[in-house]
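Try it yourself: sequence plus coenzyme A, in.
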Amino acid sequence: MGKALDGVRILDFTHVQSGPTCTQLLAWFGADVIKVERAGAGDITREQLRDVAGADSLYFTMLNHNKRSVTIDTKNPEGKLVLEALIQKCDVLVENFAPGALDRMGFTWERIQELNPRMIVASVKGFGPGPYEDCKVYENVAQCVGGAASTTGFDDGPPVVTGAQIGDSGTGLHLALGIVTALYQRTMTGRGQKVLAAMQDGVLNLCRVKLRDQQRLERTGVMKEYPQYPNGTFGEAVPRAGNASGGGQPGWILKCKGWEHDPNAYIYFITQAPVWVKICNVIGREEWATHPDYATPDARLPRLKEIFAEVERWTMTKTKFEAMEILNKYDIPCGPILSMKEIAEDESLRKTGTIVEVDHPVRGKYLTVGNPIKLSDSPTEVTRSPLLGEHTDEVMAELGYSPAQIDALRTAGAI
Ligand code: COA
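Structure, out:
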């Protein structure tokens, strides 16, 4: 059976994390992803955070599966000709250079269209058009300018960035959707188009509920599900919400048995209204089910701290997994705080292909996160990331270059 994106050729000019996550997804869906790198250097992440001497880092290998690697010096005149041939052969060019770098190479949108009017040019940039459009941006900058940092953390502490790479991987996901959408539109128009995913926009999209809260705050001056209610004060902007749930069902992180020595012996507990009576029964506070101070969601809002403290008295008598098992029987939504070690060892995640073991010729076996999106007719097989320039000769031959021409280009430093 073929793959969903069989026949789609991606000229992958991405580096670091945001762009590579996007093209990795496209490769997992079956596209032929040809990653262009500089000879002798390659994607800077090949050597960043190295844990095995001489081997591509996990940073690189975990973001570049299922791709081919070619080396081209795109500032060399002959290298530019090779790139032109690739532009004519490919469907999509994906890049996340600093603003203007592609133009400086001589590959403006106009030039690319001359070479291939069907080409889709997809870019990750830090900011969209505006005062900051020329700025370079990394993950945490995006989290700060997209509204995530100001709304993450606790009220009495500084803004906090999250471990989820919502700026890089999150924007890569947005870009991938933009690319397949543009490919779909091209089937009707026959034309390519530009696709832009700005990291600030991607983070803000993921912080949509916080812009919701900003407007609620401006209208009512108070947000009753936030930990600042009822005793704290609200300012002009959405405050940090600690571990409060972002939705209408209040939640909090509670200690479980062993919390004194295990930093992850905690559970996220949601006091979902439809199961309130069951919660009261489980924690041994049956009278709360009918008491007017506790029986309705509105009555509970000013008492959430007291309620969670009482639930915690119960969760502290159970391990996080015991608590999860008991609560699930009653359909009470909850989730243990899983460490990366626990996730890496999780058998069920391995069975679904979400955690995958991959073999690499230099570093040996390592774990990676497989495709989180499962298509029933287009299953993903994760294959290792390419060595630098591993497929240069193969791709050059596909472009029609003879072995002698390839040697000459190599001697000239173009590939
Ligand atoms: N051959 C020749 N030159 C090449 C090349 C190749 N194969 N590949 C890249 N280059 C050149 C570029 O043309 C550029 O040259 P120029 O500055 O003279 O025009 C140079 O390499 C550096 O590229 P750049 O993207 O500016 O890298 P950087 O290390 O200075 O910046 C980022 C890194 C991530 C900050 C920047 O790329 C960026 O802001 N990207 C957009 C946002 C983004 O994706 N950020 C998240 C990254 S996870």
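One thing you can check immediately is this: The pocket of coenzyme A is lined by residues 16-19, 36-38, 72-75, 96-98, 101, 104-105, 124-126, 136-138, 168 (CB under 6 Å).
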